[in-house]
Amino acid sequence: MFDKDQTNLPFNRNLAPNFSRLFSRRSSIIKLTLFALFLGTIIWIIILKPLAESDSLSDFGVSAKNKKESTQPIWQIDLKKTIDERFSVYKKEQFTESALEKNRLIPVTAVLLGWKRTEGLQTVVNYISKYPFIKEILVWNNNNETRIYARDFSLNNSDVELSVFNSEENLHDLSKYTTCSMAKYDYCYFQDDDWLNLYMDSLYTNFLESPSLIHSNSMPTIYLESRKWMFANADKNLHTGFTWLGCGSFISRAKVQRFLGQLGTISLMKDRLKLVDRYFSLWTNQYPYQLSNPLTPLDQKDGWGVDQRNMVYNNILDATQKLYTALAVKSGSELFTREEEKPYYNDRVIRAPCLNDKCLFLTNIDPFPHPSRVYYANNITHVRNQEAKFNKLDFPSKFFWNNYAFHFAVDSDGQTCWNSFKIPKVGDYFGLQFVEPSFPKKVTILSSKDISNFNASFNIQVSPDGNKWRTCNITNSNNTDYTYNNSITFEFDCSNIVKNKRLIRFIRIEASRNFIEPFEICSLILDELNV
Ligand SMILES: *[C@@H]1O[C@H](CO)[C@@H](O)[C@H](O)[C@H]1NC(C)=O
Ligand SMILES: *[C@@H]1O[C@H](CO)[C@@H](O)[C@H](O)[C@H]1NC(C)=O
Ligand SMILES: *[C@@H]1O[C@H](CO)[C@@H](O)[C@H](O)[C@H]1NC(C)=O
Ligand SMILES: *[C@@H]1O[C@H](CO)[C@@H](O)[C@H](O)[C@H]1NC(C)=O
Ligand SMILES: *[C@@H]1O[C@H](CO)[C@@H](O)[C@H](O)[C@H]1NC(C)=O
Ligand SMILES: *[C@@H]1O[C@H](CO)[C@@H](O)[C@H](O)[C@H]1NC(C)=O
Ligand SMILES: *[C@@H]1O[C@H](CO)[C@@H](O)[C@H](O)[C@H]1NC(C)=O
């Protein structure tokens, strides 16, 4: 349906063919209405005079501000070497049409925006094409001063379809959504060209468990901030949150199409229309599933240097107010979803990808309060009012979180540690989800504290799906370091409960007694897997 290299895309001359995927598999009146709204939106944008203010504002959230505020040095890694060493444990053969009918894997379309950093874009395209679940890549170039072509990119996998579109005009954030709406597959992967997500397999693995939700990656400081930008009101069926999407996120195309319909119905001020990234996650009316991890910067020279915080605040508040107002109307209007999707907030125990991208850290111990603890009544005048209410609750400070965020338990560095912040009780747990099934027999826990009293304090449990857990027999527990008593090894036997070795995808270490201080876990070593 698409020619490669659609230079001078006939975007404003001949719209229909480009968006025919919108309703290729559906033919209902709803779709037609949606398309009309969508077309209206597009025409609305085309007649807008281009706005001077931004190229891709989403840069702001993670670069400009964070460079100043982060107390944690950005990881010094040899990027090229790291990229070369990364490969997917998923296989090409699992994503052929016939294989996909039998397995529960999901093919994905990557949507990338071009602006000025072509090299960054080339790096991203080459890198993500290694991951076989990325079956299609759509590059939308927002810069009318430069043209880019498919031949400017090198792919690592010849099975991926690459199409490049050159826009006559800078459609800013909006082009992510219009481009995703044309995707061949039901889910899109968003990624900007100034950060690299080195946790493709882990993020994808978690996405598979609940594909309808937004799955995003955030740096710990941004993660903390996003926890304050959640809005809840049970009476109004409001349960939503903000997340940045540009650091690698999986998104459902159906949600994107619905969003375009929302944009067509609720007219936004024209300068807001180009900043729709602030609206999308909030208007799904679901808390996004965010993982917290350090991100890898690419060339960021043409990004944002100025603090755009107020604009972010304004747009978040505007999005929330409009959502609240629409939900408050007790009509049959289904412009916004009312139902909260599963897994519910407290059941989302997956927290951070392992540095090696082979597993994910999980724990039920959430150091942050449930979003419903701050009641949103649509009478605040600034997001700071919301933050002020949140700040009265008990949660980690920025300093604490920068030093003890989840991923420090799984960064292969025994010197950096996750701290549970809360004091663990019977039944609290931490553990791992494996990207590939595993059959562990031994786990060593490394802490920064004396944990010689950990020996009789845990149950070891395994699960195929993260729902049904079975308890293994602990056959031996042993202090492995008598100098500091800060490591302990459990040997265990799950063969009595799990016959098929391919069936273990989750392991957790569950407290069998109440503790008197928070856990501080620096590393987990499972058989050969050292995280
Ligand atoms: C594809 O990825 C592999 C594994 O990282 C790497 O060795 C190889 O050089 C890449 N090939 C291309 C064409 O980028
Ligand atoms: C690019 O777009 C700007 C703003 O719409 C316009 O002023 C300029 O002439 C365009 N440049 C080209 C090469 O089309
Ligand atoms: C907002 O509404 C809530 C609940 O109705 C109320 O308790 C609060 O005082 C109101 N705040 C302001 C600033 O009006
Ligand atoms: C736990 O360790 C302590 C001290 O090393 C020891 O006295 C105790 O017997 C151990 N308990 C079990 C169940 O191994
Ligand atoms: C602890 O581990 C060491 C080395 O594996 C072993 O020799 C020793 O017997 C173990 N101690 C206990 C109490 O199991
Ligand atoms: C480590 O634990 C052993 C056994 O409980 C104890 O004898 C020793 O003093 C402890 N070492 C330190 C440094 O606390
Ligand atoms: C597990 O522990 C139970 C109770 O101690 C014991 O009866 C059983 O034989 C053990 N199973 C294995 C496989 O070690």
Automatic annotation (TrEMBL):
The keyword Membrane applies. The keyword Ion transport does not apply. Keywords: Membrane, Transmembrane, Transmembrane helix. The chain crosses the membrane at residues 29-48. This is F5/8 type C domain-containing protein. The lineage of its organism: Eukaryota, Fungi, Fungi incertae sedis, Mucoromycota, Glomeromycotina.
